[in-house]
Design a protein that fits this description.
Elements: H1 2-7, E1 10-12, H2 16-40, H3 50-78, H4 88-101, H5 116-140, H6 146-151, H7 155-182, H8 185-193, E2 195-197
Antiparallel strand pairs: 1-2
Helix pairs in contact: 2-3, 3-5, 5-7
The structure holds protoporphyrin IX containing FE (HEM) (2 copies).
Residues 29, 32-33, 36-37, 39-40, 54, 57, 61, 64-65, 132-133, 136-137, 139-140, 159, 162-163, 166, 169-170 line the site of one protoporphyrin IX containing FE (HEM).
């Protein structure tokens, strides 16, 4: 075992801050998803009281928005936004990556951290989650954000947009879960422990 860890030392893939952020984001997302579905369809997503769903939603929203704002700030401060935001190189590497993923090539391309699909998804989530939060905040404090509410064409439109955005978020998160669970044990482990064994998937 000792020899194995010498030959194959571990590599830090996710710092503690990123792991804490990830699990706050993920748990608040599940809370918001379920409580939001209860607000919309109480019969299909049961909870004892509507008040409980609203309390969960209003608590989750601060954790969710707080986590996103922290991540944007952290990315700019440390410069590690480069790991996420696609560069020109990401676009040029994308065809080879998709060919490999679609079993059209056996050559597996290597990336410093995230693959092009992960980069596209995480980058797409930034405006998507912020808009979800903004429409949610308009529903939360409509009197204070009445000007913004008018920009969207009234409270009912904001509510429908919030609902639609929540479904887009849920389906892309589902895609993320699928990729996370199928991209290898080491990467999955790294979001819990921080570490990935070198040279392993
Ligand atoms: C049980 C549920 C989840 C699991 C098992 C999971 C797993 C993972 C794994 C393994 C990674 C790292 C991928 C890698 O190192 O290549 C990751 C990263 C990430 N996940 Fe999740 N995830 C979950 C839920 C979520 C949810 C619900 C969201 C969003 C609402 C989310 C957003 C992210 C983001 C943004 C990153 C990139 C982290 C960064 O560097 O900023 N995850 N996830
Ligand atoms: C990011 C911060 C968020 C804020 C500030 C927010 C805020 C709100 C508010 C104030 C309501 C109205 C509650 C009521 O009328 O009792 C609502 C409803 C809802 N939210 Fe959110 N929310 C957020 C995120 C999310 C997320 C991440 C999801 C799901 C992925 C979600 C899904 C829903 C759904 C499905 C409804 C019910 C819409 C309807 O009336 O049919 N929300 N949200």
């Amino acid at each position: 075992m000792w020899l194995l860890s010498k030959v194959m030392p571990k590599k830090l893939r996710h710092t503690r801050e990123i792991r804490v952020y990830h699990w706050i984001l993920a748990s608040s997302f599940f809370l918001l998803f379920y409580s939001g579905q209860h607000i919309s369809h109480p019969r299909y997503f049961p909870l004892p009281r509507m008040g409980l769903a609203r309390l969960a939603h209003f608590t989750g929203q601060f954790a969710f928005l707080g986590a996103i704002i922290w991540r944007i700030h952290h990315g700019i401060k440390t410069g590690n936004y480069r790991e996420i935001i696609p560069s020109r190189k990401t676009f040029s590497q994308a065809p080879a990556f998709f060919r490999y993923e679609l079993f059209l090539s056996s050559k597996q391309p290597k990336f410093p951290k995230y693959n092009p699909l992960q980069k596209f998804l995480y980058t797409f989530w930034i405006p998507q989650f912020l808009l979800l939060g903004l429409t949610g905040l308009i529903l939360y404090i409509p009197q204070r954000l009445s000007r913004l509410e008018k920009v969207f064409g009234g409270l009912n439109r904001v509510r429908r947009l919030h609902y639609l955005l929540s479904l887009i978020a849920a389906s892309t998160v589902f895609g993320h879960l699928y990729l996370a669970l199928t991209s290898g044990k080491e990467k999955l482990k790294s979001i819990f422990t921080g570490y990935q064994a070198r040279g392993k998937k």
